[in-house]
Amino acid sequence: MTRSARQTKPLLEAIDFSVTLHTPSVSVRPVDRVSYSVEPGEVLAIVGESGSGKTILNMAPLDLLPVGVNADMEGAVRFEGVDLLKMSASELEAICGGGIGVVFQDPLSALNPVRKIGRQLTEGIEHHLGLTAAQADSRAAELMTLVGLSDPRSRMQQYPHELSGGMRQRVGIAMSIAGEPRLLIADEPTTALDVTVQAQIVALLKDLQKRLGMAIVIITHDFGVVSGLADKVAVMYAGRLSEIGGVRDVLIEPAHPYTQGLLRSVPSLTVPMNTKFAGLPGQPPNLARRIEGCAFAPRCAEVRPECSVHRPALLSVPRSATGHLAACPVVINHPA
Amino acid sequence: MKWFNAPIRIVGWPTLLLVLSFAFVAIFGSVVSPYDPAAQNLMQAMQPFSPEHWLGTDNLGRDTLSRLIAGAQTTLIGVTSILLLAGTVGMILGTLAGYFGGWLDEIVMRLCDFGFSVPSLFVALAIVGVFGPSYGNMILALAIAWVPIYARLTRGVVAAAASQPYIESLRVLGASPARIIFRHLIPVALGQVLVYASADAGLLALAIANLSFLGLGVQPPQAEWGQMLVSAMPYIQEAPRLVILPGLALTILVVGFNLLGERIALAKNPRPMARRKLSLRRAIFKQEMSA
Amino acid sequence: MSKPLLSIVDLKTHFRDSRTGADIRACDGVTLDINAGEIVGLVGESGCGKSTLGRTIVGLERARSGQIRFRGEEVLALRGSRGAATRRKIQYIFQDPLSSLSPRQTIGEAIDEALVINGEGNRSARRARIAELLEAVSLPAQLTDRYPREMSGGQRQRVCIARALAADPDVLVCDEPVSSLDVSIRAQIMNLFLKLRDDLGMACLLIAHDLAIVRLAAQRVYVMYLGKIMEQGTSAELYGHPAHPYTQALLSAVPLTNPVQELARRRILLSGDVPSPMNPPSGCRFRSRCPVAQPLCETFPPAAALSASHVAHCHFAGECDLASIKANAFSAPHLVHVQG
User: Fold this and answer.
1) Bridge partners of A183?
2) Which residues of chain C have a CB within 8 Å of the CB of B165?
C-alpha cells in the first residue's frame, strides 16, 4: 500500500457487516451484509424507514441495543483500524466516551431524571478525560455554551424535566461531545422535535462539525435533515444498502427506484398545488424470512423477472460521480 | 397437555403443586378426611402418631389430620369470600373513581387514604369488636379492611386505560359509560386484580389465623389453623406437634401463595433467553436464511 | 357564501396545572370555520394548542367558554341522546393508530362495536356494512379477524378511519394522522382523505405540523401559536404570500430535500421554544420570539384582512418579509440567526 493510501484510511469502516437479533419471540436479520466507510471530518447520513435496520447498524457494534436482545454480528466494523466487534465491553465503553460520541433520539431517556444536568455532564468528563471536579465544571460550562445554551452555570443546576425538548437535545449533544470524539453518531436527533427547533439542532450539528472537525454519522428517516447537513448519503432498505453516494448525486439524481420513491414521498413546498400525494405501494418485507433477490422488488415499478433471483450488488451508477453506487442492475444497465 | 404447559411455565411446578394440593384438600376435605373433625373421644386424647391417627389427636381426642383438613376448608372459604367481596366492592369503587374522576375520585381516594393509614388488622379488630366475634363477622371485617387495596389498584389501572386513545375513540363514537366500563375497562382491571389477589391470598390466610388466634374469628368447635394453634398452646411442652403442625401448614400455604403471586407478576417481565434455546434458535434461523 | 358546516367561535379550553394551580391556556379564544366537503388545515408547533382545539371539538376536553356550531345547532349546549347523536357526526382520528384500537378486539369486532353504538341492531346488516367500510378504506375483507398488532401501521390507520366512518360522520378531525407512519406509506393515507372528500363530501380538520402535507391536502389553512390563531387563508394565499412573521418562519423552517436549494436559501431560525401557555406574552403572543417585534406589539394585534379569506393577526401584517431582511437590520438582533 502506498503512503498516501494509508493516510486516507477511513475513520469508520464496515465490511460485510450483518446483525442477527434473537429475542424470546422472534429472530430477524435487520442488517444484511452492509459495507460503507466514513472519512475523518465527513458527514454521512444513513436514511431509511422504520425497520430498515439503520439504527441497529450503528448501535449493535457499540453494544447499545436494549437489554434482553441477543445480537450475533458477522463481518467487521473498524474504527480507526480496530475492529469494534472484537472489543471487550470495557474497551467499548472507553471508545463510546472518547473516540465516538453518541446522541440519542429521545434525550430524556439518555438523561437521569433525578440528577442535575451539570452533575451528569461533569461525571462523564471526569471519567473520560481524567480532570478534577473544578476543571470538569468549567469544561461542562464551556460545552454548554458551545451547544448554544445561554447561562450555563444556572442551567447546570436544573433537572432534565425543567428543560424543553430542544434544550434537552442540546444537553444530549453536549454530553456526547464531552470526550472530544472524532466521530459523532446521532440517532434520529431531530425526530422528537418541532420543525423550528429541528432547524436549530441541524444548524448546531453543522456548526460543531466544522468547529471540532469531527465526522458525523446521522441516522434519520427525514431527507430534509440530510440535504443541509450531509456530505454523503446511504439509503437502507430491509437491512441492505440500496444506494450510497454524494449528497447531491443521491438526492438530486437518485438511481435506485426505492430512493426515487422515497424522495417523491416527501411532499415539498414547490410541487404544484392540488397534486395527489406520491408514495410507494405495499409494505416492507418480513425480516424473519430469507429474501430472494432484491428486497424492494415486490414494491418496485421497474421490476423485472430477474429481480427476484439474485441479490443485486452495489454497482457504480453510470454518468454520475465516482462513489455513487446503487443496488439495481435494471436501472444501471438500462438507463432511461 | 397444552393447557397445562402454560401455567407450569409461568409459575413452575412446585408452586403449582403446592397451591393445587391445598385447593384439593380444602374442596374434597370432607371426603378424604378419616374422622369427623369435631368428634371428641376423650379416651383417645393426646395420642401420638399412630396408624389409626396418622397425626395423632388433641386434648379432646379429636383427630389432628381431620382438623387440619377442615381448617384448610375454613381458610379457603374465608380467603375466597373475602377476596370476592373486597375485590368486587373495590373494583366498583375504583372503576367509578378512575373513569369519572372529579369529586367521586376525591371521596373514594380519601376513604382509601383513611383505610391505608390504619393497619388493616386494626380495622378488622375494631369491626369485630363492634359486631362480636364470629366467622361471618371476621370475613366481613377483613373484606372491609381489604377494600381500599383493590379500590386503589383498580383506580390506577382504569385511569391509565381511560386516557388511552382506544377508550377516547369509543367516547367520540358515542359509547355509553356503561359500555366502556363493562366491556373495556373492567376486563383490563380484572387481569391486574387477579394477579394481585393471587399474592394477597397468603396474607389473608395469615390474617384469618391471626384473628382466630386472638379469639375474634372462628369460634370452637369449628376447625381453623390459628384457632388450633391457640387451643394447643397449654400443651406446647407435652405435645409440641399440636402447635407445630398447624403452624407448618399455615407457613407452607403463605409461602405457596406468595410464590404464586410473585411468579405471575414476574411473568410479564422479559427474561433473557436460556442458552440452549438461543443456540437452537440460531440453528433454526440459519436454516431459514439459507433455505 | 353558504353557512359553514361547523363553526368554532371564540373557543377557550383551559387546564389547571396540578402543581401550581395556575391556568394553562391551551386553547385561548379560537374562531374557525369548516365548510362541507372541505379539508381545513391547522398547523403550528407542538404545544400551540392545536390538538386541544381538536379534542375540544369532539368533546374529549371540556370547553371553558365559546361556541361550537354544527349544522346550526350549538353543540356545547346539547345534552342527552340528542347531543350524543349530533356529536357522533364529528369523528376523530388519532395520531397513533395502534393505541387507538383495543388490543383485545379484532378489527372486525372494533368496527362492529362502532356500528352497534351507532344504533345498527341487525347483525347481518352490520356484517355487510363492515365489508363496505373496509372496501371504502381499501382494505381486503379477509383482515376482519386480525388483531391490530398483526397489521402494519398504514393498515391500522385505515381501520381507524373505517371505524370513524361507521358513525356516518360529516366531519373528521384528524390529529397528525400520518406523522407516526413511514414516509413512503403516508401518501396512501393522505390520498384516502382526498378520496373521502371527493367521493363522500367529507369535511376534515387536518391538524398537522408538516406544512408541506397540509399544503397539498387543504383548501384553507389556519396557523396557530400559543392558543391563538395567527393567520388564516386559502392554501394559495398562505403559502404564496404569508403575512404573519410566524407563518414566514414556519415556512422557512421546512427543510428542502434538494441539497443545492437547501444550502442556497435563506432560513429564519427562531430562537428558543414555544413559551409556557401558563404565562403567555401579553399583546401579540409571538412577540417574545418574533425577529421584528416592536414596542407596539405589546398591545393586542388587530385582525388585518388582506383579502376576504386571508387574515393575519399582526400589527405589521403583510409589511414585513423576514426572508429578505438582513440579520443586523433586526430591532432585536439577539433573537435571531439568519443563515444565508
Assistant:
1) A100, A215
2) 94, 96, 99-100
What is the secondary structure of B217-247 as a DSSP string? SSPTTS--HHHHHHHHGGGTTT-THHHHHHH
In this complex, the chains that touch B, judged by 3 or more CB pairs closer than 8 A, are: A, C
Are the Cβ atoms of A22 and B284 closer than 8 angstroms?
no
Average pLDDT (C121-140) is: 94
HSE-CB at C302 with a 13 A cutoff on CA atoms is 5
Enumerate the domain spans of chain C: 6-89+169-339, 109-166
pLDDT average, residue stretch C31-58:
93
Chain B nearest CA to A318, separation (Å): 32
Cell output for C339? 443563515
Question: pLDDT averaged over chain B?
Answer: 86
CA distance A36 to A12: 8
Q: Any idea what DSSP says for residue C121?
A: -
Count of C-beta atoms within a 10 Å radius of residue A113: 9
Rounded to 5°, angle at Cα B43 from B209 and B64? 25
Q: Is the pLDDT score of C189 beyond 90?
A: yes
Tell me which CATH code domain B7-35+60-290 carries.
1.10.3720.10
Q: How many Å apart are CA A96 and CA A290, to the nearest integer?
A: 33
Distance CA C31, CA A294 (A): 52
pLDDT at A242 over 60: yes
One DSSP character per residue, B54-101 reads TT-B-TT--BHHHHHHHHHHHHHHHHHHHHHHHHHHHHHHHHHHHHH-
CB contact under 8 A, A198 and C255: yes
Q: What is the mean pLDDT of residues A6-10?
A: 68
In this structure, what C-alpha cell is assigned to residue B38?
A: 369435631
Please check the confidence at residue A292 and state whether its pLDDT lies above 50.
Answer: yes
**Residue to substitute from C89, C107, C113, interface B, most B β-carbons within 10 A:** C113
Instruction: Measure the CA–CA gap between B157 and B194, rounded to whole angstroms.
Output: 13
In a mutational test of the B interface, the residue from A21, A23, A27 whose CB has the highest number of chain B CBs within 10 Å is A27
- Interface residues of B toward A, Cβ cutoff 8 Å, are 270-273, 277-278, 281-282, 284-285, 288-291
Residue C328 has what pLDDT? 34
**If we measure between CA atoms, which residue out of B146, B138, B118, B127 comes closest to residue B212?**
B138
CATH of domain C6-89+169-339: 3.40.50.300
Cβ(A70)–Cβ(A279) below 8 Å:
no
Q: In sequence order, what DSSP letters do the residues of A132-188 get, joined into one string?
A: -HHHHHHHHHHHHHHTT-SSHHHHTTS-GGGS-HHHHHHHHHHHHTTT--SEEEEES
C-alpha cell at position A140: 461542562
Q: Cβ contact (<8 Å) for B273 and A72? A: no
